[in-house]
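Write out the 3D structure for:
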Amino acid sequence: MTKLKLLAFGVLIATSAGVAQAENDLTLGAGVGVVEHPYKDYDADVYPVPVINYESDNFWFRGLGGGYYLWNDKADKLSITAYWSPLYFKPGDSDDRRLRELDKRKSTMMAGLSYIHNTEYGFLRTTLAGDTLDNSNGIVWDLAWLYRYTNGALTLTPGIGVQWNSENQNEYYYGVSRKESSRSGLRSYDPESGWNPYLEISANYNFLGDWSVYGTARYTRLSDEVTDSPMVDKSWTGLISTGITYKF
């Protein structure tokens, strides 16, 4: 189940560029995703990725998330949204003996507001959401600017963004309590909130009518609040996903 959560995370990022869809469009597909974790002695995960996207005047669903439109026109889209956050830490997945003595961190359901503003120079994408399952009790704010370029059957969408993690969010996923410290030998760590800038690019190539191939990548530079954690040995995380889809 844990890997299935990360598997769907690939879909969430693959569709995060906000590819425009017509009313009542349904897109299904499959691919492969690779995720690089920031934790010490954690191997990158490689796994199959299902793709399920749906868009209507009132509702939308992409990857692990969905929403209900409060406002929806060509320029502005405001939604109540909910999505499954696949962040987790499983001690047994680390080869570091000290990390294997830490507590498990669970993935969770996030809910909040999502907004997209379209212009001729690109579009703004932002989401503010909080944990609803009393796991991290954290808040995450994501803000990005992207530009969609289309040349025939090829669409490229590069973007630059930043994600803010609240103190509770960072503490749950990267903090080390005193109990964990005495048990594992790691120093205790209590991070504050932090900003994680990122770059992303998505590509989609349409062929044979309703068939398309897609690819997406995201590189995230982790904040000092994350990289200073004794659980972490990287300054970045990354994700790559590619696959094929069919639009009904």
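The two ends are 29 Å apart (CA to CA).
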